[in-house]
Amino acid sequence: MTVRAGALGSLLKDRKIGLALSSGAARGLAHIGVLEMLEEEEIHIDMLAGTSMGALIGAVYAERQDIDRMKHLAIELGLKRFSFLADPVLPKYGLIRGRKIGNMLRSIIGDVEFGDLKIPFACSAVDINSNQEVVIKQGKVREGVRASCSIPILLTPSKLEGRYLVDGGLLDPVPVKILKDMGADPIIAVNVIPNGQNTFLGASQNNRRKNGPNILSIAIQTVNIISSQRLKSSLSGADVIIEPQVTHISWGDFHRAEECIVQGRLAAQVSIPEIKRLLAG
Questions:
Q1: CB-based contacts of 92, cutoff 8 Å, min separation 6
Q2: What is the Cα–Cα distance from 59 to 48, expressed in whole angstroms?
């Protein structure tokens, strides 16, 4: 776990605490543990931004702030091994149509709109045609999350307002700048993306066979590699960076939800003194 302190600023009463949640597939379940620890320490988040899995976790928290429900959903998802969300399609735009994922998001988030959330929230996606980041903070939350999670090749792009959108992790894996533009200060970033030489670290045993990784793993790891190269610029501007120790967990290990959540708690716990010093500055 790494914590880096940035410049300490003005009085707490004039500040809005922002929390940026990274992409990271199953590793992103650690975000739940971070949120739980912050709640226990009475560190109240005023703004949230997320990318890919971070967008899903952030959206669910921004809607209800119900950690117990989030933990239950994460464990339930792990028991189903995520394969139940696959609806294969002839690969014109992606291998998976995404309707089942859309239905899952509807069941979790409903038709709530960004403006109705308890905590201001935004998520990051990428316009596949213009190669520009798109910040989504209007309309139906589930549609924004679906766009932010649309892994190229694997999932068909989401079409929103005439644009075809894919996973925000390609350009902004930890959406710190989005929070800064929303007026957050200070900003706490949570990163679960491997930041070492081996971005395949934690690959499941099924992907280490003689024939090499399958197309699903290739799609995920391609995004991981690109995201890891973007980390430094994406994290710049964060006042505290929390990095749960989840590199040993594969992108698809949703059945290890409880372990991820525990690692998120542990990483946040180590960061609490630094966060409190920052807020008291």
A1: none
A2: 8
Judge if the upstream peptide bond of residue 186 is cis by omega within 30 degrees of 0. Answer: yes
Angle at 159 between CA 173 and CA 235, to 5 degrees: 10
pTM, to two decimals: 0.87
Decide if 3 contacts 242 (C-beta within 8 A): yes
* CATH for the stretch 12-268: 3.40.1090.10
If you write DSSP's letter for every residue of 173-225 in order, what string do you get? Answer: SS-HHHHHHHT-BSEEEE--S--SS-TTTT--GGGGSTT---HHHHHHHHHHH
Each domain of the chain, given as residue ranges in start order, spans 12-268
Active site residue 111: no
Token pair 């989840």 is found at 246
Give the residue from 252, 251, 239 showing the smallest Cα distance to 279.
Answer: 239
Beta pairing class for 121-127 and 240-242:
unpaired
Active-site residue, selected from the candidate residues 167, 185, 239, 253 = 167
Residue type at 104 in one-letter notation: M
pLDDT tens profile 170-191:
999 999 999 999 999 999 999 9
Active-site annotation holds for 150: no
CA-CA distance, 122 to 135, in Å (whole number)? 7
Tokens of 271: 């960061």
Of the residues 52, 148, 217, 234, which is catalytic?
A: 52
